[in-house]
Design brief:
Blueprint: E1 5-11, H1 13-20, E2 25-32, E3 37-42, E4 45-51, H2 68-73, E5 76-79, H3 82-96, E6 105-108, H4 115-122, E7 131-134, E8 143-152, H5 159-168, E9 174-176, E10 193-201, E11 206-215, H6 223-234
Parallel strand pairs: 1-2, 4-5, 6-7, 9-10
Antiparallel strand pairs: 1-3, 3-4, 6-8, 8-11, 10-11
Helix pairs in contact: 1-6, 3-4
Length: 244
């Protein structure tokens, strides 16, 4: 039987709801706040998991792209904020594989701290930055990012699919959209994100990859992602209680 962890948290009602039904968490205090944060501890070891702090004194990034061991041992860690989360899903597989030949361009459907986009791509080896534009729109409460990346021509028709599968095929919370209508109905009220890939010809030695990513602000872009990272840090099942 796993030991209960005492937590003090601040953030959204969705975060409070997830923690309230978490079998291994006892909430000592909770306060409403704009930014999600959990302080937790057991056996005298006090720890924190944050969201949107790229300069945290500990591991930072998308959990799907990280080694779990540093998270298990960390005093502090942070998952990305909303725009950086969607950007990492869209472009990090290309950065990891050294496929990018120029700065990727992003359009986000919401306002955010876009500076974090560059930081999250740096964690995957891309240091040249990105072009970022905000185009706020009402998408039934969900958040969308569209990226356009110039890449080297894939060696085969399956190379791009394989890169994204390597990063996300085993993920509980990032899934590829294989067909049907694209829109908020795919992720509304769920802890996961969906992405779709559209490859087009470019110059003779390059191609253009468009990636659309969508998530609920309380799901992969919010409280659910934070608790996912908490679960990893504590050695719980990754998807335990992560719904809202």
């Amino acid at each position: 039987m796993q030991e209960t962890v005492e937590a003090r948290a601040a953030g959204s009602p969705a975060l409070e709801a997830i923690l309230s039904r978490h079998a291994h968490i006892r909430i000592a205090a909770f306060e409403a706040a704009v930014n999600n944060k959990i302080e937790f501890g057991r056996n005298g070891w006090n720890r924190q998991v944050l969201q949107g702090d790229p300069y945290v004194h500990g591991p930072y990034g998308l959990a799907e792209l990280m080694d779990n061991n540093p998270l298990v041992c960390a005093d502090m860690a942070s998952c990305p904020g909303p725009s950086a989360t969607l950007a990492a899903i869209a472009v990090a597989p290309l950065a990891k594989a050294a496929m990018l030949t120029d700065r990727p361009a992003f359009v986000f459907s919401f306002d955010d701290n876009y500076e974090e986009v560059n930081r999250v791509l740096e964690t995957e080896g891309w240091i040249e930055g990105a072009a970022v534009t905000g185009n706020p729109m009402d998408l039934d409460g969900c958040l969308i990012a569209t990226s356009l990346s110039e890449i080297r021509v894939p060696q085969s028709s399956s190379e791009i699919d394989d890169l994204y599968d390597e990063c996300f095929a085993r993920s509980f919370f990032v899934r590829r959209h294989e067909g049907g209508d694209w829109g908020p109905q795919l992720v509304r009220g769920t802890p996961g994100a969906m992405y779709q890939l559209i490859l087009s010809p470019g110059e003779p030695d390059t191609a253009i990859l468009r990636v659309d990513v969508i998530a609920d602000p309380n799901g992969k872009c919010g409280a659910a992602q934070l608790v996912h990272m908490l679960n990893i840090m504590c050695g719980f099942e990754e998807d335990h209680a992560v719904s809202f």
